[in-house]
Write a structure and sequence with these properties.
Layout lengths: L2 H55 L6 H11 L3 E5 L9 E5 L1 H77 L5 H32 L8 E4 H16 L5 E5 L4 E4 L1 H17 L7 E8 L2 E7 L7 H4 L12 H5 L6 H11 L3 E6 L5 E8 L2 E2 L1
Length: 371
């Protein structure tokens, strides 16, 4: 366990223990006050008896009416009962009132309830605050770590294609009489690297726009069947991946969408699927209507995604802890962009396990179907 976590845990325990002690001390103090009030009420009849006896000796009153009036005024907590079989001025009984005893009991219970409730509420609030602060710190640390990983990834993502393009161009310059077929391969590879750089820049710009809420969509009724076909071809043909792509697309499905945003969604999902699945396994794209919704699926047969990783799958900069994922190219922005663009469409995306292996990303464009 790291040192900051230990310090945080110790401080948390101390604060909770301090409030628990505060609650206990107040309840104990209330109990002590209750006991003292009870003792005082038990001794009060003796004090009252001495007081009224002195008043009788001083002839402050000669009848029971004035006697009772004096007594009730000075001792409202006590009962006075005269013995009329003898001279009542000198024969009487003084006892604590039942209401006075009940008042002390009620006051004690009210204080215990008040301090107990305050203590429980404060401890619960402290626990909530501690958990919230801890999670906030964890999130900040995770974000810092993800940003650090992102900087390393983006450096690699930019450096590799630039170095590759530089090498191809230098080769072409140094060997002007290079075989035409070889020159075409180098130029094609250079174009692929340029495409890779362009996609990376577009993702970075899109992530920045989504973060600052500057991205606006332009909705229109689009033939999403044709769009999905075109985007899939646009992705696989330059990369020579058409032999691995399978499509099952219902024709002439129209939806109210932003074509540019949806193109980026599909490209990012295809990129993800091809990147994390073996070279000999297919990637399948399906599209069909389901009532008033359009369902799009991108299916791969890779290793799959753990339950733990699914929780943060669409977070910015997030990349799974799997070592194979760490070694692969990527910035952790693709699925973040996909999720946010679909949110702008009021659409949903979920990641389900494929059988026997892999992932199924399923998009649901609810109430987007148009004639």
């Amino acid at each position: 366990m790291k040192k900051p976590a230990i310090i945080f845990a110790v401080l948390s325990v101390y604060i909770v223990a301090a409030f628990a002690w505060w609650t206990y001390a107040h309840i104990k103090s209330s109990k002590d006050i209750f006991i003292e009030q009870g003792k005082y009420l038990e001794l009060l009849p003796y004090k009252a008896s001495l007081d009224v006896r002195g008043a009788v000796d001083q002839e402050m009153f000669r009848d029971t009416v004035s006697f009772r009036s004096y007594f009730n005024f000075n001792y409202p907590e006590l009962n006075l009962e005269f013995d009329h079989t003898q001279d009542p001025i000198y024969n009487y009984a003084i006892t604590p009132k039942k209401s006075a005893i009940e008042a002390i009991n009620k006051q004690y219970k009210r204080r215990v309830l008040m301090y107990g409730t305050e203590g429980i509420v404060m401890v619960l609030l402290l626990f909530w605050g501690i958990i919230w602060i801890y999670r906030s710190l964890q999130n900040r640390l995770n974000l810092k770590r993800q940003q650090s990983n992102f900087l390393l990834s983006i450096t690699h993502e930019l450096k590799t294609p630039i170095a590759s393009i530089k090498l191809y161009l230098e080769t072409l310059l140094k060997r002007p009489n290079l075989d035409k077929a070889q020159a075409e391969v180098m130029m094609r590879n250079s174009l692929n690297d340029v495409t890779r750089l362009r996609d990376l820049v577009e993702n970075l710009l899109m992530a920045a726009q989504l973060d600052t809420h500057q991205f606006t969509l332009s909705f229109a009724s689009i033939n999403i069947s044709n769009l999905t076909h075109e985007v899939a071809d646009k992705y696989v043909l330059p990369r020579n991946l058409q032999h691995r792509l399978k499509v099952q697309i219902q024709p002439d499905v129209y939806a109210n969408i932003d074509a540019i945003a949806m193109e980026m969604v599909i490209i990012n999902l295809l990129s993800n699927a091809f990147k994390y699945s073996p070279d000999d396994k297919p990637v399948t794209v399906t599209l069909h209507k389901e009532g008033s919704a359009v369902k799009i699926k991108v299916i791969d047969e890779g290793k799959g995604i753990s339950v733990e990783d699914k929780k943060s799958l669409f977070s910015k900069f997030y990349r799974a802890e799997d070592e194979n994922v760490r070694k692969s190219k990527g910035t952790g922005l693709g699925l973040f962009i996909v999720k946010n663009l679909l949110n702008h469409h009021n659409a949903s995306i979920i990641a389900n396990d494929n059988s026997p292996s892999g992932v199924i990303f399923e998009i649901t464009l609810q109430n987007h179907v148009t004639a």
